[in-house]
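User: Predict the complex.
Assistant: Input components as received:
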Amino acid sequence: MNVTGHTRGPASIRDVAAAAGVSYQTVSRVINGHPSVRQSTRERVLAVIDELGFRRNATALALARGRSRAVTVLTANTTHYGYASILQGIEEAARAAAYSVGVGVLESADEAAVTAEVRRAGDTGGGLVVIAYDPAGVRALESVPAGLPVVGVVETPASPPTGDQPWVWTDDREAAYEATRHLLSLGHGTVHYVAIPSSTRRTSARTAGWRRALKEAGAPEPRPVQGSWGPAGGHAAGLALARDPAVTAILCGNDDLALGVLRALHESGRSVPGEVSVAGFDDAPHSAYLMPSLTTVRLDFTGLGRSAFALLHGVLEESAAVAPHPVSVPELVIRESSGRPPG
Amino acid sequence: MNVTGHTRGPASIRDVAAAAGVSYQTVSRVINGHPSVRQSTRERVLAVIDELGFRRNATALALARGRSRAVTVLTANTTHYGYASILQGIEEAARAAAYSVGVGVLESADEAAVTAEVRRAGDTGGGLVVIAYDPAGVRALESVPAGLPVVGVVETPASPPTGDQPWVWTDDREAAYEATRHLLSLGHGTVHYVAIPSSTRRTSARTAGWRRALKEAGAPEPRPVQGSWGPAGGHAAGLALARDPAVTAILCGNDDLALGVLRALHESGRSVPGEVSVAGFDDAPHSAYLMPSLTTVRLDFTGLGRSAFALLHGVLEESAAVAPHPVSVPELVIRESSGRPPG
DNA sequence: CTGAAAGCGCTTACAG
DNA sequence: CTGAAAGCGCTTACAG
């Protein structure tokens, strides 16, 4: 330290110690709020900290403590509404807990690529949250090495997860069931389904909920139409469904898909909800402003993100174990796009 | 290390050294690709590394080297299309360069809150990218302490930035100019503007471009309508504009705003583009599927994010200085929502 | 209440 | 080509 009180680079605890006339261990005690420090000493150290603009080095802290207050989110996407909102929720909760949040994008579901990303994320230190709504995410969640703290944001599991599967989800199976029942209750003979890409080879939770509602009502079960995540997939699916005059009700795996379906029906000269009813999933910000406005199921993705972090936080800080649990109950939002069938 | 080759926790370079019968410095040389290591030694060490599953501790690396391969993105939002796409672009480029990416959300534009976030982000080590499209972002960019490497993603600057302002942008002033000219060329007497919240007290780049086009055409300049980021703001603005029968063309600061305007015009019984033409900004994924599909300006946010990282990377690695520069040229996309004025 | 020591896992000169 | 030393900035026992 020179006369002006500056060293090269930011001040360290040794700089503070020297300026305050104490050992650097005492400085450590002060910044950690350790009780056994004489009041006058504490005040002197605090004053120097302020004067020198001392900031504790997070990297050194992490190395010394053996763990860092960090969470990295592994996701296949950051722009779709649901994914982006989950990330926003995680960040919000992490910030409140003074955790830093990193993000790693799973660009491909390829085994090697996923493994590499998981490793990179693990190397950062701290815990992981992986969004497992798609094959890349599911694979990432599976390939997290034991010992690395992780929580998965998953579709509604077919069976309750075991204790060592810290998962978090919103009940989309039930939500699909409710949406389908809504359409059925309006008098439709059955409901067609345009699916988002499934996370695995097995039936998705949304598909299962839709199927159950049909079964209970004794309605015929049409073959689900495979969509994508965006409106383009919905548009293609909608064009195909529009050709079948028997189709009067369509449930879509998300609101973007529904947007494409709406457009396809319009182009095909079929009115909504006059001839065909459409319902979406998610309640994205634009859905209330479409023409017609979209009947959909509101999912609390931000809350889901917050819960994911809370669960991870519990694991990392080894506080009271938090049991895996569904988060918030999805809510059916009825708007203009659904109505009674024609005739 | 015990008989099974396991120690508590992951293997360190000392574990590897012991197992390979060399000093840990030699292990360091091997993992850093230092040339002066005998081939046979290198192979032996590599074999042990593989066997023990050794992974170099990123935290220790960062501490020893004095800097970390990390970038943290400071942004007011992660869910809006533009912001989310920039983040996606940054992550993509960062991943390719083996950098980790963190994100910090600026929840408020409040001075103290912004300063705290900037500090937190700086503590993480590595560089910063701040998205300065709004007051919180602008303030964050301004309050980054000297010495902390940072690049700003900004609106088109009014004047060329100086050398010590590493900024990146897409030419939205020009884009607004082009979109306005398009509307004017269709025969509209003037073009009304629904603005996104401005980043500062001064005129935004988009507003400036719109204004210049009007001026050049000798068209009267209506007072810009203040919107928000989402469709709700556009809806409110649209309702107001719909009341004025003289309004025949509306430019919106982004596509979400345009969506709200479209809905408001529809509710007010004014047809688009028959009575009123509407144009947006961004070319968000849903814009091509609206009814009518939206005329808009396509901005390459992902590319912008990649450029931002490239610039920061240049600063951090002290390689050839990269001059600040506009990124890609926005492209006008003409769709159904714009046409000739009535009569 | 406070200081001296050892260590977190790595790198960077310094010797040989 | 390779090892012994010192250090990055902090924390955690150990002494007193």
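Residues 1-7 of chain A have pLDDT under 50 and may be disordered.
Let me know if you want any component modeled separately.
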